[in-house]
From TrEMBL, chain A:
Organism annotation: Streptosporangium pseudovulgare
Protein name, as recorded: Molybdenum transport system permease
Family: Belongs to the binding-protein-dependent transport system permease family. CysTW subfamily.
NCBIfam families in the cross-refs: Mo_ABC_porter, modB_ABC
Matching Pfam families: BPD_transp_1
TrEMBL record, chain B:
Organism: Streptosporangium pseudovulgare
Name of the molecule in the record: ABC transporter ATP-binding protein
Limits of the ABC transporter domain: 3-231
Signal peptide per UniProt: none
Database matches in InterPro entries: AAA+_ATPase (IPR003593), ABC_SmlMolc_Importer (IPR050093), ABC_transporter-like_ATP-bd (IPR003439), ABC_transporter-like_CS (IPR017871), ABC_transpr_FbpC (IPR015853), Mo/tungstate-bd_C_term_dom (IPR008995), Mop_domain (IPR004606), P-loop_NTPase (IPR027417)
Length: 286, 344
Protein backbone atom coordinates (compact mmCIF):
# COMPACT_ATOMS: atom_id res chain seq x y z
CA UNK A 1 0.00 0.00 0.00
CA UNK A 2 1.37 3.36 -1.00
CA UNK A 3 -0.30 5.15 1.85
CA UNK A 4 2.48 4.15 4.17
CA UNK A 5 4.45 7.01 2.62
CA UNK A 6 2.12 9.46 4.35
CA UNK A 7 3.96 11.74 6.68
CA UNK A 8 2.02 12.45 9.81
CA UNK A 9 3.07 15.18 12.18
CA UNK A 10 4.26 13.66 15.41
CA UNK A 11 2.51 15.07 18.41
CA UNK A 12 4.77 15.31 21.41
CA UNK A 13 3.38 13.49 24.39
CA UNK A 14 1.87 15.73 27.02
CA UNK A 15 4.18 16.44 29.91
CA UNK A 16 7.11 15.07 28.00
CA UNK A 17 8.17 18.02 25.90
CA UNK A 18 11.30 19.99 26.48
CA UNK A 19 12.40 17.97 29.45
CA UNK A 20 15.14 15.41 29.14
CA UNK A 21 13.81 12.02 30.14
CA UNK A 22 15.32 10.80 33.38
CA UNK A 23 17.95 8.18 32.80
CA UNK A 24 17.45 4.81 34.48
CA UNK A 25 19.06 4.76 37.88
CA UNK A 26 18.25 8.37 38.64
CA UNK A 27 15.50 7.32 41.04
CA UNK A 28 16.99 6.81 44.44
CA UNK A 29 15.65 5.84 47.85
CA UNK A 30 14.68 2.53 49.38
CA UNK A 31 13.71 -0.33 47.11
CA UNK A 32 10.00 -1.13 47.53
CA UNK A 33 9.65 -4.59 49.12
CA UNK A 34 6.34 -5.06 47.31
CA UNK A 35 8.42 -5.42 44.16
CA UNK A 36 11.65 -6.77 45.57
CA UNK A 37 10.14 -9.74 47.40
CA UNK A 38 8.24 -11.23 44.44
CA UNK A 39 11.22 -10.51 42.22
CA UNK A 40 13.53 -12.57 44.44
CA UNK A 41 10.91 -15.31 44.75
CA UNK A 42 10.61 -15.40 40.98
CA UNK A 43 14.35 -15.66 40.61
CA UNK A 44 14.52 -18.52 43.12
CA UNK A 45 11.68 -20.29 41.34
CA UNK A 46 13.61 -20.20 38.08
CA UNK A 47 17.01 -21.08 39.46
CA UNK A 48 16.31 -23.59 42.26
CA UNK A 49 15.11 -26.50 40.10
CA UNK A 50 18.24 -26.24 37.99
CA UNK A 51 20.39 -26.08 41.11
CA UNK A 52 18.54 -29.12 42.45
CA UNK A 53 19.31 -30.98 39.28
CA UNK A 54 23.00 -30.25 39.65
CA UNK A 55 23.02 -31.09 43.38
CA UNK A 56 21.29 -34.44 42.94
CA UNK A 57 23.35 -35.41 39.91
CA UNK A 58 25.40 -38.58 40.56
CA UNK A 59 28.68 -36.89 39.69
CA UNK A 60 31.04 -39.85 40.52
CA UNK A 61 29.21 -42.23 38.19
CA UNK A 62 28.38 -39.62 35.58
CA UNK A 63 31.07 -40.50 33.01
CA UNK A 64 30.28 -44.19 33.02
CA UNK A 65 26.51 -43.57 32.83
CA UNK A 66 27.05 -41.22 29.93
CA UNK A 67 29.01 -43.91 28.14
CA UNK A 68 26.13 -46.38 28.29
CA UNK A 69 25.08 -47.35 24.77
CA UNK A 70 21.43 -46.36 25.08
CA UNK A 71 22.40 -42.92 26.42
CA UNK A 72 24.88 -42.36 23.63
CA UNK A 73 22.35 -43.61 21.13
CA UNK A 74 19.69 -41.20 22.36
CA UNK A 75 22.19 -38.35 22.42
CA UNK A 76 23.41 -39.09 18.90
CA UNK A 77 19.84 -39.39 17.62
CA UNK A 78 18.90 -36.10 19.30
CA UNK A 79 21.86 -34.21 17.87
CA UNK A 80 21.40 -35.63 14.36
CA UNK A 81 17.64 -35.02 14.28
CA UNK A 82 17.90 -31.50 15.71
CA UNK A 83 20.63 -30.62 13.23
CA UNK A 84 18.82 -32.02 10.20
CA UNK A 85 15.58 -30.36 11.35
CA UNK A 86 17.43 -27.03 11.68
CA UNK A 87 18.89 -27.44 8.21
CA UNK A 88 15.39 -28.09 6.85
CA UNK A 89 14.08 -25.06 8.73
CA UNK A 90 16.84 -22.89 7.25
CA UNK A 91 16.08 -24.14 3.77
CA UNK A 92 12.37 -23.41 4.05
CA UNK A 93 12.23 -20.83 6.83
CA UNK A 94 14.65 -18.21 5.48
CA UNK A 95 12.76 -17.87 2.17
CA UNK A 96 9.50 -17.81 4.13
CA UNK A 97 10.85 -15.04 6.34
CA UNK A 98 11.97 -13.17 3.22
CA UNK A 99 8.49 -13.53 1.74
CA UNK A 100 6.91 -12.15 4.91
CA UNK A 101 9.37 -9.29 5.26
CA UNK A 102 9.90 -8.24 1.67
CA UNK A 103 6.89 -9.06 -0.48
CA UNK A 104 3.58 -7.27 -0.23
CA UNK A 105 0.73 -9.69 -0.80
CA UNK A 106 -2.87 -9.83 0.33
CA UNK A 107 -3.32 -11.75 3.55
CA UNK A 108 0.28 -11.30 4.63
CA UNK A 109 -0.75 -10.62 8.21
CA UNK A 110 -2.82 -13.77 8.27
CA UNK A 111 0.10 -15.79 6.91
CA UNK A 112 2.39 -14.33 9.54
CA UNK A 113 -0.10 -15.30 12.23
CA UNK A 114 -0.34 -18.82 10.82
CA UNK A 115 3.43 -19.17 10.83
CA UNK A 116 3.53 -18.47 14.54
CA UNK A 117 0.75 -20.91 15.43
CA UNK A 118 3.13 -23.84 16.10
CA UNK A 119 4.81 -21.54 18.62
CA UNK A 120 1.75 -21.45 20.87
CA UNK A 121 0.19 -24.77 19.88
CA UNK A 122 0.62 -27.55 22.45
CA UNK A 123 3.22 -29.81 20.81
CA UNK A 124 1.00 -32.86 21.35
CA UNK A 125 -1.66 -31.20 19.23
CA UNK A 126 1.00 -30.55 16.63
CA UNK A 127 1.88 -34.23 16.68
CA UNK A 128 -1.76 -35.26 16.23
CA UNK A 129 -2.12 -32.77 13.36
CA UNK A 130 1.01 -34.16 11.71
CA UNK A 131 -0.39 -37.68 12.05
CA UNK A 132 -3.62 -36.63 10.37
CA UNK A 133 -1.81 -35.12 7.41
CA UNK A 134 1.36 -37.17 7.08
CA UNK A 135 0.23 -40.40 8.78
CA UNK A 136 -0.23 -43.53 6.70
CA UNK A 137 -3.89 -42.69 6.26
CA UNK A 138 -3.28 -38.95 6.23
CA UNK A 139 -4.06 -36.61 3.36
CA UNK A 140 -0.49 -36.39 2.12
CA UNK A 141 0.86 -39.44 3.89
CA UNK A 142 -1.36 -41.75 1.85
CA UNK A 143 -0.07 -40.24 -1.37
CA UNK A 144 3.55 -40.30 -0.15
CA UNK A 145 3.32 -44.00 0.57
CA UNK A 146 1.52 -44.83 -2.67
CA UNK A 147 3.84 -42.79 -4.87
CA UNK A 148 7.25 -43.00 -3.22
CA UNK A 149 6.75 -45.78 -0.69
CA UNK A 150 7.68 -43.33 2.04
CA UNK A 151 6.18 -43.47 5.51
CA UNK A 152 7.01 -40.79 8.02
CA UNK A 153 5.30 -41.70 11.31
CA UNK A 154 7.34 -43.75 13.75
CA UNK A 155 10.58 -43.26 11.79
CA UNK A 156 13.63 -41.09 12.34
CA UNK A 157 12.45 -38.91 9.45
CA UNK A 158 9.23 -38.50 11.41
CA UNK A 159 11.22 -37.20 14.38
CA UNK A 160 12.84 -34.62 12.10
CA UNK A 161 9.46 -33.59 10.68
CA UNK A 162 7.98 -33.17 14.16
CA UNK A 163 10.96 -31.16 15.38
CA UNK A 164 11.02 -28.94 12.31
CA UNK A 165 7.28 -28.29 12.65
CA UNK A 166 7.67 -27.10 16.20
CA UNK A 167 10.98 -25.24 15.79
CA UNK A 168 10.61 -23.45 12.46
CA UNK A 169 8.63 -20.45 13.80
CA UNK A 170 11.61 -19.54 15.99
CA UNK A 171 13.80 -19.30 12.91
CA UNK A 172 11.21 -17.51 10.78
CA UNK A 173 10.51 -14.89 13.42
CA UNK A 174 14.18 -14.25 14.09
CA UNK A 175 15.10 -13.98 10.39
CA UNK A 176 12.07 -11.87 9.58
CA UNK A 177 13.04 -9.47 12.36
CA UNK A 178 16.56 -9.27 11.00
CA UNK A 179 15.22 -8.63 7.49
CA UNK A 180 12.96 -5.86 8.72
CA UNK A 181 15.83 -4.31 10.62
CA UNK A 182 18.21 -4.48 7.66
CA UNK A 183 18.73 -1.27 5.70
CA UNK A 184 16.99 -1.89 2.38
CA UNK A 185 18.96 0.86 0.70
CA UNK A 186 21.88 -1.54 0.43
CA UNK A 187 19.63 -3.79 -1.65
CA UNK A 188 18.75 -0.81 -3.83
CA UNK A 189 22.43 -0.01 -4.24
CA UNK A 190 23.03 -3.59 -5.36
CA UNK A 191 20.15 -3.35 -7.85
CA UNK A 192 21.65 -0.22 -9.43
CA UNK A 193 24.86 -2.20 -9.88
CA UNK A 194 22.95 -4.71 -11.99
CA UNK A 195 22.23 -7.38 -9.40
CA UNK A 196 19.11 -9.47 -9.93
CA UNK A 197 16.84 -9.97 -6.93
CA UNK A 198 18.32 -13.39 -6.31
CA UNK A 199 21.88 -12.02 -6.46
CA UNK A 200 20.86 -9.18 -4.16
CA UNK A 201 19.52 -11.69 -1.67
CA UNK A 202 22.51 -14.01 -1.90
CA UNK A 203 25.31 -11.45 -1.95
CA UNK A 204 23.92 -8.51 0.03
CA UNK A 205 20.86 -9.34 2.11
CA UNK A 206 21.94 -12.71 3.45
CA UNK A 207 25.43 -11.62 4.56
CA UNK A 208 23.95 -8.57 6.24
CA UNK A 209 21.33 -10.53 8.19
CA UNK A 210 23.72 -13.40 8.96
CA UNK A 211 23.76 -12.68 12.72
CA UNK A 212 19.97 -12.89 12.81
CA UNK A 213 19.99 -16.11 10.81
CA UNK A 214 22.56 -17.65 13.14
CA UNK A 215 20.62 -16.59 16.23
CA UNK A 216 17.43 -17.98 14.74
CA UNK A 217 19.11 -21.23 13.75
CA UNK A 218 20.54 -21.73 17.24
CA UNK A 219 17.17 -21.11 18.88
CA UNK A 220 15.54 -23.39 16.36
CA UNK A 221 18.12 -26.09 17.06
CA UNK A 222 17.64 -25.76 20.82
CA UNK A 223 13.88 -26.03 20.44
CA UNK A 224 14.25 -29.07 18.19
CA UNK A 225 16.63 -30.71 20.64
CA UNK A 226 14.16 -30.42 23.49
CA UNK A 227 11.09 -31.39 21.47
CA UNK A 228 8.97 -34.03 23.24
CA UNK A 229 5.22 -33.82 22.66
CA UNK A 230 5.04 -33.73 18.88
CA UNK A 231 7.83 -36.29 18.59
CA UNK A 232 6.28 -38.90 20.85
CA UNK A 233 2.89 -38.41 19.22
CA UNK A 234 4.00 -38.47 15.62
CA UNK A 235 7.18 -40.56 15.72
CA UNK A 236 6.65 -42.73 18.77
CA UNK A 237 9.30 -43.94 21.16
CA UNK A 238 11.51 -46.57 19.58
CA UNK A 239 15.07 -46.93 20.86
CA UNK A 240 17.60 -46.15 18.19
CA UNK A 241 15.16 -44.68 15.69
CA UNK A 242 12.86 -42.23 17.45
CA UNK A 243 13.85 -42.20 21.12
CA UNK A 244 15.54 -38.82 21.50
CA UNK A 245 16.99 -37.45 24.74
CA UNK A 246 13.79 -35.89 26.11
CA UNK A 247 11.95 -39.14 25.49
CA UNK A 248 14.74 -41.08 27.14
CA UNK A 249 14.61 -38.76 30.16
CA UNK A 250 10.90 -39.29 30.57
CA UNK A 251 11.23 -43.05 30.24
CA UNK A 252 14.20 -43.28 32.60
CA UNK A 253 12.39 -41.31 35.26
CA UNK A 254 10.03 -44.23 35.77
CA UNK A 255 12.65 -46.97 35.84
CA UNK A 256 15.97 -45.51 37.00
CA UNK A 257 15.70 -41.88 38.22
CA UNK A 258 19.49 -41.42 38.36
CA UNK A 259 19.77 -42.02 34.64
CA UNK A 260 17.06 -39.43 34.11
CA UNK A 261 19.09 -36.93 36.12
CA UNK A 262 22.20 -37.68 34.10
CA UNK A 263 20.38 -37.18 30.81
CA UNK A 264 18.80 -33.99 32.13
CA UNK A 265 22.20 -32.63 33.14
CA UNK A 266 23.42 -33.26 29.60
CA UNK A 267 20.46 -31.35 28.12
CA UNK A 268 20.98 -28.57 30.65
CA UNK A 269 24.63 -28.33 29.66
CA UNK A 270 23.67 -28.04 25.98
CA UNK A 271 21.16 -25.30 26.80
CA UNK A 272 23.71 -23.33 28.79
CA UNK A 273 26.22 -23.56 25.94
CA UNK A 274 23.59 -22.23 23.54
CA UNK A 275 22.68 -19.43 25.91
CA UNK A 276 26.33 -18.48 26.27
CA UNK A 277 26.84 -18.44 22.52
CA UNK A 278 23.83 -16.17 22.10
CA UNK A 279 24.24 -13.98 25.13
CA UNK A 280 25.26 -10.90 23.16
CA UNK A 281 22.51 -11.19 20.61
CA UNK A 282 19.54 -12.48 22.51
CA UNK A 283 19.82 -12.16 26.22
CA UNK A 284 21.48 -8.84 26.91
CA UNK A 285 20.91 -6.95 23.66
CA UNK A 286 17.13 -6.63 23.80
CA UNK B 1 21.08 14.87 -25.99
CA UNK B 2 22.14 11.76 -24.19
CA UNK B 3 19.42 11.81 -21.55
CA UNK B 4 15.88 13.02 -22.11
CA UNK B 5 13.43 12.47 -19.33
CA UNK B 6 10.09 13.55 -18.07
CA UNK B 7 9.94 12.43 -14.47
CA UNK B 8 6.47 12.11 -13.02
CA UNK B 9 5.99 10.71 -9.55
CA UNK B 10 2.72 11.10 -7.67
CA UNK B 11 2.41 10.51 -3.98
CA UNK B 12 -0.14 11.58 -1.43
CA UNK B 13 0.51 15.28 -0.83
CA UNK B 14 3.41 15.40 -3.25
CA UNK B 15 3.80 15.55 -6.98
CA UNK B 16 7.00 15.58 -8.98
CA UNK B 17 6.84 16.57 -12.62
CA UNK B 18 9.95 17.78 -14.36
CA UNK B 19 11.67 17.53 -17.69
CA UNK B 20 15.36 16.92 -17.88
CA UNK B 21 17.81 16.93 -20.76
CA UNK B 22 21.48 16.19 -20.34
CA UNK B 23 24.09 16.14 -23.12
CA UNK B 24 26.89 13.55 -23.20
CA UNK B 25 29.66 14.59 -20.87
CA UNK B 26 27.47 17.26 -19.29
CA UNK B 27 27.04 17.52 -15.54
CA UNK B 28 23.63 18.76 -14.44
CA UNK B 29 22.93 19.57 -10.81
CA UNK B 30 19.43 19.31 -9.37
CA UNK B 31 19.35 21.95 -6.72
CA UNK B 32 16.56 22.61 -4.28
CA UNK B 33 15.48 22.78 -0.68
CA UNK B 34 14.73 19.68 1.38
CA UNK B 35 11.56 18.00 0.23
CA UNK B 36 11.67 19.63 -3.20
CA UNK B 37 11.84 16.24 -4.90
CA UNK B 38 15.50 16.13 -5.92
CA UNK B 39 16.19 12.70 -4.50
CA UNK B 40 12.84 11.42 -5.76
CA UNK B 41 13.84 12.56 -9.25
CA UNK B 42 17.16 10.75 -8.94
CA UNK B 43 15.48 7.59 -7.67
CA UNK B 44 13.03 7.73 -10.57
CA UNK B 45 15.96 7.95 -12.99
CA UNK B 46 17.59 4.99 -11.25
CA UNK B 47 14.40 2.94 -11.33
CA UNK B 48 14.13 2.79 -7.55
CA UNK B 49 10.94 4.83 -7.39
CA UNK B 50 8.03 3.98 -9.67
CA UNK B 51 6.83 6.68 -12.03
CA UNK B 52 3.27 7.23 -13.16
CA UNK B 53 2.36 6.30 -16.73
CA UNK B 54 3.25 9.78 -18.02
CA UNK B 55 6.89 9.33 -17.03
CA UNK B 56 9.43 8.84 -19.81
CA UNK B 57 13.19 8.34 -19.72
CA UNK B 58 15.31 7.83 -22.77
CA UNK B 59 19.07 7.41 -22.66
CA UNK B 60 21.04 7.43 -25.91
CA UNK B 61 17.74 6.89 -27.73
CA UNK B 62 16.79 3.84 -25.67
CA UNK B 63 13.75 3.79 -23.43
CA UNK B 64 14.90 3.42 -19.83
CA UNK B 65 11.66 3.72 -17.89
CA UNK B 66 10.52 0.28 -19.00
CA UNK B 67 13.60 -1.37 -17.47
CA UNK B 68 14.01 -2.36 -13.82
CA UNK B 69 16.83 -0.74 -11.86
CA UNK B 70 19.16 -3.68 -12.42
CA UNK B 71 18.67 -3.46 -16.19
CA UNK B 72 19.56 0.23 -16.54
CA UNK B 73 23.06 1.29 -17.64
CA UNK B 74 23.45 3.59 -14.66
CA UNK B 75 25.86 4.15 -11.83
CA UNK B 76 24.63 5.63 -8.57
CA UNK B 77 26.64 7.24 -5.78
CA UNK B 78 24.34 7.30 -2.76
CA UNK B 79 24.33 9.91 -0.08
CA UNK B 80 25.75 7.61 2.62
CA UNK B 81 27.63 5.72 -0.10
CA UNK B 82 25.99 2.44 1.00
CA UNK B 83 29.16 0.44 0.57
CA UNK B 84 28.43 -3.19 1.41
CA UNK B 85 29.82 -3.53 4.93
CA UNK B 86 30.72 -7.20 4.55
CA UNK B 87 32.85 -6.70 1.44
CA UNK B 88 36.29 -5.15 1.03
CA UNK B 89 36.69 -1.94 -0.93
CA UNK B 90 37.92 -4.02 -3.87
CA UNK B 91 34.96 -6.40 -3.79
CA UNK B 92 32.56 -3.51 -3.41
CA UNK B 93 33.87 -2.07 -6.65
CA UNK B 94 34.00 -5.52 -8.28
CA UNK B 95 30.35 -6.16 -7.36
CA UNK B 96 28.96 -4.44 -10.46
CA UNK B 97 31.20 -6.12 -13.04
CA UNK B 98 30.50 -9.44 -11.29
CA UNK B 99 26.76 -8.89 -11.75
CA UNK B 100 27.36 -8.07 -15.40
CA UNK B 101 28.78 -11.55 -15.85
CA UNK B 102 32.52 -10.92 -15.72
CA UNK B 103 34.64 -13.53 -14.00
CA UNK B 104 35.84 -12.96 -10.47
CA UNK B 105 39.41 -12.33 -11.64
CA UNK B 106 38.36 -9.98 -14.42
CA UNK B 107 35.99 -8.07 -12.11
CA UNK B 108 38.71 -7.63 -9.52
CA UNK B 109 41.13 -6.43 -12.19
CA UNK B 110 38.62 -3.78 -13.31
CA UNK B 111 38.00 -2.85 -9.67
CA UNK B 112 41.72 -2.53 -8.89
CA UNK B 113 42.13 -0.28 -11.92
CA UNK B 114 39.32 1.99 -10.74
CA UNK B 115 40.60 2.13 -7.17
CA UNK B 116 43.95 3.12 -8.64
CA UNK B 117 42.22 5.91 -10.58
CA UNK B 118 40.60 7.34 -7.46
CA UNK B 119 43.91 7.04 -5.64
CA UNK B 120 42.93 4.23 -3.28
CA UNK B 121 44.94 1.28 -4.60
CA UNK B 122 46.47 0.82 -1.13
CA UNK B 123 43.03 0.59 0.56
CA UNK B 124 41.71 -2.26 -1.61
CA UNK B 125 41.63 -4.76 1.24
CA UNK B 126 39.95 -2.39 3.72
CA UNK B 127 36.36 -2.88 4.88
CA UNK B 128 34.07 0.15 4.53
CA UNK B 129 34.13 0.78 8.30
CA UNK B 130 37.91 1.16 8.14
CA UNK B 131 37.68 3.89 5.49
CA UNK B 132 37.52 7.61 6.18
CA UNK B 133 34.54 9.55 4.83
CA UNK B 134 36.50 10.86 1.89
CA UNK B 135 37.87 7.43 1.05
CA UNK B 136 34.42 5.85 1.26
CA UNK B 137 33.10 8.50 -1.12
CA UNK B 138 35.83 7.68 -3.63
CA UNK B 139 35.18 3.94 -3.34
CA UNK B 140 31.49 4.64 -3.92
CA UNK B 141 32.36 6.62 -7.05
CA UNK B 142 34.66 3.84 -8.26
CA UNK B 143 31.89 1.30 -7.62
CA UNK B 144 29.41 3.35 -9.64
CA UNK B 145 31.87 3.81 -12.52
CA UNK B 146 32.80 0.11 -12.54
CA UNK B 147 29.59 -0.83 -14.35
CA UNK B 148 30.59 1.51 -17.23
CA UNK B 149 27.38 3.50 -16.87
CA UNK B 150 25.98 5.80 -19.56
CA UNK B 151 24.27 7.81 -16.86
CA UNK B 152 25.92 8.66 -13.57
CA UNK B 153 23.69 9.69 -10.68
CA UNK B 154 25.07 11.28 -7.53
CA UNK B 155 22.90 11.94 -4.49
CA UNK B 156 24.43 14.62 -2.26
CA UNK B 157 27.90 13.21 -2.98
CA UNK B 158 29.63 15.55 -0.53
CA UNK B 159 27.00 15.99 2.16
CA UNK B 160 28.43 13.38 4.52
CA UNK B 161 31.91 14.91 4.56
CA UNK B 162 33.37 17.38 7.00
CA UNK B 163 34.28 20.81 5.71
CA UNK B 164 37.96 20.16 5.19
CA UNK B 165 37.62 16.83 3.41
CA UNK B 166 34.86 18.37 1.39
CA UNK B 167 37.07 20.94 -0.30
CA UNK B 168 39.56 18.31 -1.38
CA UNK B 169 37.00 15.71 -2.44
CA UNK B 170 34.98 18.29 -4.32
CA UNK B 171 37.88 19.17 -6.60
CA UNK B 172 38.77 15.48 -7.04
CA UNK B 173 35.16 14.72 -7.93
CA UNK B 174 35.16 17.61 -10.39
CA UNK B 175 38.11 15.99 -12.22
CA UNK B 176 36.51 12.55 -12.29
CA UNK B 177 33.25 13.97 -13.61
CA UNK B 178 35.18 15.81 -16.32
CA UNK B 179 36.71 12.48 -17.41
CA UNK B 180 33.31 10.79 -17.58
CA UNK B 181 31.82 10.92 -21.08
CA UNK B 182 28.24 9.92 -20.22
CA UNK B 183 25.53 12.11 -18.77
CA UNK B 184 25.78 13.04 -15.10
CA UNK B 185 22.95 14.16 -12.85
CA UNK B 186 23.81 15.16 -9.33
CA UNK B 187 21.55 16.19 -6.53
CA UNK B 188 22.64 18.69 -3.95
CA UNK B 189 21.27 21.28 -1.61
CA UNK B 190 24.66 23.00 -1.45
CA UNK B 191 24.95 25.73 -4.07
CA UNK B 192 28.72 25.69 -3.79
CA UNK B 193 28.86 22.00 -4.71
CA UNK B 194 26.49 22.69 -7.59
CA UNK B 195 28.55 25.64 -8.81
CA UNK B 196 31.82 23.79 -8.65
CA UNK B 197 30.66 20.45 -10.02
CA UNK B 198 27.92 21.23 -12.53
CA UNK B 199 27.84 22.70 -16.00
CA UNK B 200 24.17 23.47 -15.65
CA UNK B 201 21.83 23.93 -12.70
CA UNK B 202 18.21 22.91 -12.49
CA UNK B 203 16.52 24.42 -9.47
CA UNK B 204 13.57 22.45 -8.13
CA UNK B 205 10.96 23.61 -5.70
CA UNK B 206 7.83 21.66 -4.78
CA UNK B 207 8.45 19.04 -7.43
CA UNK B 208 8.80 21.37 -10.40
CA UNK B 209 11.62 23.23 -12.12
CA UNK B 210 11.66 26.87 -11.10
CA UNK B 211 14.82 27.85 -12.90
CA UNK B 212 17.61 26.40 -14.97
CA UNK B 213 20.74 27.56 -16.70
CA UNK B 214 24.47 27.71 -16.28
CA UNK B 215 25.60 28.52 -12.75
CA UNK B 216 26.44 32.05 -13.89
CA UNK B 217 23.02 32.64 -15.46
CA UNK B 218 21.20 31.36 -12.44
CA UNK B 219 23.34 33.45 -10.14
CA UNK B 220 22.87 36.60 -12.16
CA UNK B 221 19.12 36.46 -12.55
CA UNK B 222 17.62 34.71 -9.54
CA UNK B 223 13.91 34.23 -10.13
CA UNK B 224 12.81 33.12 -6.69
CA UNK B 225 13.81 34.03 -3.21
CA UNK B 226 15.19 30.56 -2.66
CA UNK B 227 17.41 30.85 -5.69
CA UNK B 228 18.64 34.26 -4.64
CA UNK B 229 19.83 32.81 -1.38
CA UNK B 230 21.11 29.72 -3.08
CA UNK B 231 23.45 31.39 -5.50
CA UNK B 232 26.05 32.55 -3.10
CA UNK B 233 24.63 35.73 -1.71
CA UNK B 234 25.74 36.50 1.78
CA UNK B 235 22.48 36.55 3.66
CA UNK B 236 21.78 37.58 7.24
CA UNK B 237 18.80 38.04 9.42
CA UNK B 238 18.82 41.19 11.51
CA UNK B 239 16.77 43.94 13.10
CA UNK B 240 16.45 47.19 11.16
CA UNK B 241 16.06 50.70 12.50
CA UNK B 242 15.97 52.99 9.49
CA UNK B 243 19.04 52.33 7.38
CA UNK B 244 20.82 50.62 10.26
CA UNK B 245 20.53 46.86 10.66
CA UNK B 246 21.91 44.92 13.62
CA UNK B 247 23.13 41.48 12.62
CA UNK B 248 24.11 39.85 15.92
CA UNK B 249 26.95 42.05 17.17
CA UNK B 250 27.56 43.69 13.83
CA UNK B 251 25.85 46.92 12.78
CA UNK B 252 25.34 47.23 9.01
CA UNK B 253 24.24 50.20 6.94
CA UNK B 254 21.87 49.56 4.07
CA UNK B 255 20.43 51.70 1.31
CA UNK B 256 16.85 50.71 2.09
CA UNK B 257 14.95 52.29 4.97
CA UNK B 258 13.17 49.58 7.00
CA UNK B 259 12.04 48.75 10.52
CA UNK B 260 11.93 45.46 12.39
CA UNK B 261 13.09 42.02 11.30
CA UNK B 262 14.82 42.04 7.92
CA UNK B 263 17.11 40.07 5.69
CA UNK B 264 20.28 41.71 4.51
CA UNK B 265 21.98 40.31 1.44
CA UNK B 266 25.06 41.25 -0.51
CA UNK B 267 27.06 39.44 -3.14
CA UNK B 268 30.47 38.06 -2.24
CA UNK B 269 31.96 40.31 -4.91
CA UNK B 270 30.80 43.36 -2.93
CA UNK B 271 33.08 42.44 -0.05
CA UNK B 272 36.43 44.20 -0.11
CA UNK B 273 39.36 42.93 1.96
CA UNK B 274 42.19 44.91 3.53
CA UNK B 275 45.30 43.98 5.47
CA UNK B 276 45.02 47.11 7.63
CA UNK B 277 42.07 49.27 8.65
CA UNK B 278 41.00 51.32 5.61
CA UNK B 279 40.40 55.09 5.82
CA UNK B 280 37.77 57.10 4.02
CA UNK B 281 34.01 57.15 3.77
CA UNK B 282 32.01 55.41 6.46
CA UNK B 283 31.06 51.93 5.31
CA UNK B 284 30.27 48.58 6.79
CA UNK B 285 33.50 47.41 8.28
CA UNK B 286 34.45 44.46 10.46
CA UNK B 287 37.45 42.42 11.40
CA UNK B 288 37.42 38.86 10.02
CA UNK B 289 39.61 35.78 10.01
CA UNK B 290 40.35 33.96 6.76
CA UNK B 291 38.73 30.53 7.01
CA UNK B 292 39.73 29.25 3.59
CA UNK B 293 40.43 30.19 0.01
CA UNK B 294 39.28 28.44 -3.15
CA UNK B 295 38.90 29.04 -6.86
CA UNK B 296 35.49 30.20 -7.96
CA UNK B 297 35.10 30.73 -11.69
CA UNK B 298 37.63 33.37 -12.72
CA UNK B 299 37.82 34.68 -9.20
CA UNK B 300 38.89 33.49 -5.80
CA UNK B 301 36.35 32.89 -3.08
CA UNK B 302 37.56 33.72 0.41
CA UNK B 303 35.75 32.27 3.41
CA UNK B 304 35.61 34.74 6.27
CA UNK B 305 34.96 33.92 9.92
CA UNK B 306 34.35 36.61 12.52
CA UNK B 307 31.28 38.39 13.90
CA UNK B 308 29.48 37.09 10.76
CA UNK B 309 30.62 34.38 8.40
CA UNK B 310 30.81 35.61 4.84
CA UNK B 311 32.21 34.84 1.42
CA UNK B 312 34.27 37.41 -0.39
CA UNK B 313 35.06 37.07 -4.09
CA UNK B 314 38.29 38.77 -5.12
CA UNK B 315 40.50 38.57 -8.18
CA UNK B 316 43.54 36.30 -8.21
CA UNK B 317 45.65 39.47 -8.48
CA UNK B 318 44.11 40.84 -5.30
CA UNK B 319 44.74 37.51 -3.62
CA UNK B 320 48.42 37.74 -4.55
CA UNK B 321 48.60 41.39 -3.43
CA UNK B 322 47.04 40.73 -0.05
CA UNK B 323 48.91 37.44 0.45
CA UNK B 324 45.89 35.89 2.16
CA UNK B 325 46.32 32.63 4.06
CA UNK B 326 43.87 30.83 6.32
CA UNK B 327 43.98 32.12 9.89
CA UNK B 328 45.02 35.62 8.87
CA UNK B 329 43.10 38.56 10.37
CA UNK B 330 41.79 41.03 7.78
CA UNK B 331 39.36 43.94 7.53
CA UNK B 332 36.27 43.30 5.46
CA UNK B 333 33.99 46.02 4.16
CA UNK B 334 30.81 46.33 2.11
CA UNK B 335 29.36 49.55 0.72
CA UNK B 336 25.87 50.33 1.97
CA UNK B 337 24.74 50.76 -1.66
CA UNK B 338 25.72 47.18 -2.42
CA UNK B 339 23.68 45.66 0.36
CA UNK B 340 20.08 44.80 -0.19
CA UNK B 341 17.67 44.71 2.73
CA UNK B 342 14.10 43.47 2.66
CA UNK B 343 11.55 42.53 5.31
CA UNK B 344 11.94 39.07 6.79
Amino acid sequence: MATTEHIRPVKPRRGFTGRPSPSPGRLSGRLPWMLLLPALLGLAFLVLPLAGLLIRAPWPTLPQRLAEPHVLEALRLSLVCATVATAACLLLGVPLAWLLARVEFPGRRLVRALVTVPLVLPPVVGGVALLLVLGRRGLIGQWLEATFGVTLPFTTAGVIVAEAFVAMPFLVISVEGALRGADRRFEEAAATLGASRWTVFRRVTLPMIAPGVVAGAVLCWARALGEFGATITFAGNFPGTTRTMPLAVYLALETEPEAAIVLSVVLLAVSVVILASLRDRWVSAS
Amino acid sequence: MSLRARLVVTRPAFELDLTLEVAPGEVVALLGPNGAGKTTALRALAGLTAMTAAGRISLDGRALHTLPAEGRPIGVVFQDYLLFPHLTALDNVAFGPRCQGFSKTESRRVAAELLERVGLADRAAARPRELSGGQAQRVALARALAVRPRLLLLDEPLAALDAHTRLEIRSRLRRHLADFDGATVLVTHDPLDAMVLADRLIVIENGTVVQQGTPAEVARHPRTDYVARLVGLNLYRGVADGTRVRVGELPLSTSERLDGAVFVAFPPAAVALYRSRPDGSPRNLWQAVIGGVERHGDNVRVHLDGPVTAFADITPAALADLDLTPGLRVWASVKATETHAYPA
